[in-house]
Amino acid sequence: MQEDFNIRTAVPADAELILSFIKKIAEYEHMSDQVTATAELLKKSIFEDRAAFVFIGEFRRAPVGFALCFENFSTFNGRAGIHLEDLFVDPAMRGKGFGKALFQAVAAEAERRGCERMEWACLNWNTPSIEFYRHMGATALDEWTTYRLSGEAIHQAVMR
């Protein structure tokens, strides 16, 4: 089936599609209530501000998955890296190698850019994804804890 699968770089007209994939991954992760993105905001952030880039996976010309990424930077190695924010394939299309192909497209982009690292986060309960990432050669960074400021907490940090 992989011969009918194509990966392309998203274009501004894909903003609604990207939002639909974000909503699907949020539903899968039991976080639908946290999605505040709109197609207009995604269009501005991704395509005008170039804050991220997106690959769309299509099977027989129908979109079935996406990978959304952005550059980060390592002070230790002095190079940009890629942060994979979301990788999602529609549940009915899983197990056909489409997720692997999207992951490899991101890795190829990291290689093309000369990145030393490719990083992402995965929910601890998401065993299928953890197994997939391990299969792809990833190692968990158990010695690091991710911290976050969100919304009003950002403002409060400024005021402290």
From TrEMBL:
Record-level Gene Ontology MF annotations: N-acetyltransferase activity
PROSITE patterns, per database record: GNAT (PS51186)
Gene3D superfamilies per record: 3.40.630.30
Entry-linked SUPFAM superfamilies: Acyl-CoA N-acyltransferases (Nat)
Keyword Acyltransferase in record: yes
Domain N-acetyltransferase: 5-160
Sequence similarity: Belongs to the acetyltransferase family.
Name recorded for this polypeptide: GNAT family N-acetyltransferase
Source organism per UniProt: Hydrogeniiclostridium mannosilyticum
